[in-house]
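Worked example 3. Consider a protein that binds flavin mononucleotide.
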Amino acid sequence: MAKLTVDHRLSIAPMMGITDRHFRYLMRLISKKVVLYSEMIHARSLVYGNVEKLLRFHPLEKPVVLQLGGDEVDELCRAAELGEKWGYDEINLNCGCPSPRVQAGCFGIMLMHTPKKTGQLIRQLRKATSLPLTVKHRLGSSERHGYEFLSNFAEEMLKAGAQRLIVHARLAFLGNVSPKKNREVPPLDYEQVYRLKEDFPEANIHLNGGVKTYEEISFHLRYVDGVMIGRLAAQNPYFFHEADFRIFSMPVKPKLRREILREYLRYALHEYELTNENPRTLLKPLLVLWHGVPHARLFRRMASENIKRASFQEICHALEQKANDMESAEEISLHPNVRLQ
Ligand SMILES: Cc1cc2nc3c(=O)[nH]c(=O)nc-3n(C[C@H](O)[C@H](O)[C@H](O)COP(=O)(O)O)c2cc1C
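Given these inputs, the predicted complex is written out as structure tokens:
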């Protein structure tokens, strides 16, 4: 079985429409250590679609995990092979997504209902790739739940060779419930995840759902091996500027937003010239970089509204100027123990 080599104490969750390669590049400029996940990619779209478009990423993003969705063994195995070939660090199987489309396709959360079959899937995947294989799932669904159900599913996954279980600590309501509601309405129950770690002490168990502060991260890390964060990263990626120091104990000086911006714009211009990527797609991750800082709205407007009027180079230049102006407004509160290099 492939060895888990990456320090995974803190990771950014897979999020469709958010964690594309540009967002991940921005996150990597903010933190060297947090582990990054792709959006969920359906195995079939990899087998039949534009592999380069779906899998290409910048080496700087590593460590980066490819999350796959699907339930067809052959497609998933081929998709995992492709993930390995393209240099991803791990393959993660989505067993938690409850969207109506996913329910109809019988993957995501539906894989939790058939633990034996899903275990077989993991066994086949293990033959197809030498990368570590991991599973992201929920506590259960509105149809099947309870600690016994959760622990039985976890046991099957571990027996089959899953090397990390990431548990979104709430049920999934089935039926015609929007994914957004399914991330808000079912209550969080962290105790079940802690109990899972207690019952499977050798297993790598990670917790996900509703985590918003470093204090909460540190608290959960007393009971589980890692914490995964989703929406907070999407809303305020700069939250993670202290992660390397506070969670991974690296003696590093966190970067200022404008330093990150400068590096990101260099990347964006290069990508634009190299691939002719849509300027909107390239600038999207920046719209939230100044979350909660004065003038953030003005910055967002500059990055989104000028696109039709100016060249991409002009917009990048204007954004950099604006960031320099905002420098004085930017108050960065370094953690008191940060040792500056
Ligand atoms: C916009 C959005 C898209 C998401 N897409 C995925 C996905 O592709 N795969 C997945 O496993 N979870 C997906 N999720 C769920 C997150 O990975 C995470 O489990 C959930 O948001 C709970 O974590 P949080 O409370 O820290 O946000 C998505 C969440 C959001 C907000």
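Take a moment to read the result before moving on. DSSP finds 16 helices and nine strands in the chain. The first strand starts at residue 10 and ends at 12.
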